[in-house]
From TrEMBL:
It comes from Streptomyces djakartensis. InterPro entries: Amorph_synthase, Isoprenoid_synthase_dom_sf. It holds the Pfam family Terpene_syn_C_2. This is Sesquiterpene cyclase.
Length: 335
């Protein structure tokens, strides 16, 4: 969906009544997927705490506080309401790991993209070659990779590792963009955001939750590939709405709403409104494509797409309540 000057004028004239930022999002974001929560959420939260402690990732009080504000097991429970307790635990551990990894990469990358290289190269070596870890983060990733291999088929585990490597590589793109004297435009921002979303590594876990592994012709069908892209984009753009105030305060640039604000030199309120329009169009396209292909899908294929839809739903309900984004929910109408 492109955003023309006419569309901006339309939003400005006929747009949304003044409200707080959280109310603006809740009133206008299209969310056809109802709230669901995995009954093993509390168990997964305890497991995440133990797992992070085992690998020393919460020895730093700042990291422990970040995890408390982020609630990774809650996000996993919203995204995968039907997962069994074992698979939910892997997903929750992975979400927690990625939040720690992403925050550390962002901190290093802001100072210099080159500072990221040892961290990223260690991760790629573990994921691609089974290389030995040299840091606590690497040790945690090695263990996470082990959990995935034990639960998933070899093909699913290979897809998990491939998608995870793309996420790792994307963090270097983000660091280069953050270091540029001129912030990137909305198109380039979306391209980088798709790399660092960290959503697609979870799709092999969605597949592993199904009765059977998807056959290649179903998994790689052009419509299925498009559904994958749409769901990952929608899932990560929704938190961008809720994190806009936080990212603006911290000088972040790879955020859909902030990219619209820079491109159109408009208020954050209008930028969020434009971002909502793009997200709504993405979710509606996802719905339409799924409805069209669903009669052709196997039960496992349909369940796999439902798992992708779960990420759209889960990221929405998690973003609305998580302490990490409390600033946005409290922002007044004058933002």
């Amino acid at each position: 969906m492109s955003t023309t000057h006419e569309e901006i004028a339309l939003v400005t004239q006929d747009g949304i009544p003044a409200a707080g930022l959280g109310e603006l999002i809740d009133a206008n974001l299209y969310m056809p997927f109802p709230f669901e929560r995995n009954p093993h959420a509390a168990e997964a939260a305890a497991g995440v705490e133990k797992w992070l402690h085992t690998w020393g990732l919460t020895d730093d009080p700042a990291v422990a506080a970040m995890i408390s504000r982020t609630r990774p097991a809650e996000l996993a429970a919203y995204n995968g309401p039907d997962m069994d307790s074992g698979l939910l635990q892997i997903a929750a551990n992975q979400i927690a790991y990625q939040f720690v990894f992403d925050d550390r990469a962002e901190d290093l990358g802001r100072r210099s993209p080159g500072r990221l290289l040892p961290m990223l190269c260690e991760s790629v070596a573990i994921l691609r070659d089974g290389g030995p870890p040299t840091t606590p983060l690497g040790a945690a990733l090695t263990d996470l990779h082990r959990q995935v291999r034990e639960r998933c088929t070899p093909a699913q585990a290979a897809r998990w590792a491939w998608n995870s490597r793309e996420y790792v590589h994307g963090l270097l793109y983000e660091a280069v963009a953050q270091a540029r004297p001129v912030p990137v435009g909305s198109g380039l921002c979306r391209s980088i955001r798709s790399l660092i979303a960290g959503v697609e590594p979870f799709y092999p876990l969605c597949e592993a939750a199904q009765p059977c592994e998807l056959p290649p012709d179903e998994l790689h069908h052009p419509v299925m590939r498009r559904l994958t892209r749409l769901s990952a984009d929608a899932a990560v753009w929704i938190p961008d709405l809720y994190s806009a105030v936080k990212e603006q305060r911290e000088g972040g640039t790879i955020n859909l709403a902030l990219a619209y604000q820079r491109t159109h030199r408009c208020s954050l309120r209008l930028a969020v409104t434009l971002a909502i329009r793009r997200i709504n169009g993405t979710i509606r396209e996802f719905e339409e494509l799924y409805a069209g292909i669903r009669p052709e899908l196997s039960p496992s294929g349909a369940g796999y797409v439902e798992g992708m839809a779960g990420w759209i739903r889960g990221c929405y309900f998690w973003s609305r309540t998580v302490p990490r984004y409390a600033e946005t929910m409290a922002a007044s109408a004058g933002f």
